Amino acid sequence: MSRVHVTLRMLWMLLASTRIRAVLSLGMVLGLGAVGTLASWSDTATATSGAFVVGSVDMKVNGADSYAFVTLGMTDMTPGASKAAMLPVSNTGSLAVTYVGKVSSPGVLAPYLRVSVRSGGSATNTSSTGTCSSTTVVGTTATPTTAGATIFSARALAGKPVASAAVPDNLCVLVSLVNTTPFSMENKSSVLTLAFTGTAA
User: Fold this and answer.
1) Which H/E stretch holds residue 198?
2) Most buried by CB count within 10 Å: which residue of 45, 74, 117, 141?
């Protein structure tokens, strides 16, 4: 075999070896690429909660935030005289509450007035005497003060049911002038403010 043939054979073997290595290298690259692009399936499931809603408290007297309680008033009072009137207190909020009743007055006659409350019943008045038909006394008899004297505390009151009217707590308020009222109180007067504060547990 001539040297030319030997050289050509060696060159051919070298080229063939290079091609094989190139093909093998290309296969490795393609193989890695195939591994990197393998498809996979995934899915997500979610759970959504119900709404979280803050409850409310909304105290009302005779269906209003501020009520002119003119039926509880009396002219030409004398010591020992009294006046009774009904007052519905309700909570149109969604939460049940316990509530406190207070009476206040800055008037000079206030120290001689006594305020008490009974639950339910009805109010009846003559020219000088008021009475509540209910025998269920709520709290204690209070003397109005400028800051407010507590008549009762921690009285339960339901919230307003959905799509229904609020159920009122019907109170009979009785105000009397003490028998020991001095003569200096002639022609003096006081206006009372009844305040009801409800607190949810």
Assistant:
1) strand 193-200
2) 117
Round to whole Å and give the CA distance between 148 and 105.
7
Among 123, 121, 119, 122, smallest CA distance to 138 is for: 119
* Neighbour count for residue 90 (Cβ, 10 Å): 23
Element at 34 (helix H, strand E) = helix 3-36
Q: How far apart are CA 107 and CA 87, in angstroms?
A: 22
Q: Which residues are CB-contacts of 197 (< 8 A; sequence separation ≥ 6)?
A: 59, 99, 100, 102
HSE at residue 47, side-chain half, CA atoms within 13 A, is 1
**pLDDT tens per residue across span 61-71:** 999 999 999 99
Short-list 97, 89, 88, 101, CA closest to 152: 101
DSSP secondary structure of 100-155: EEEEE--STTGGGEEEEEEESS-EEE-SS-EEES---EEEEEE--BSS-EEEEEEE
Residue-level pLDDT at 23: 47
In this prediction the pTM is 0.77
C-alpha 129/C-alpha 136 separation (Å) is 19
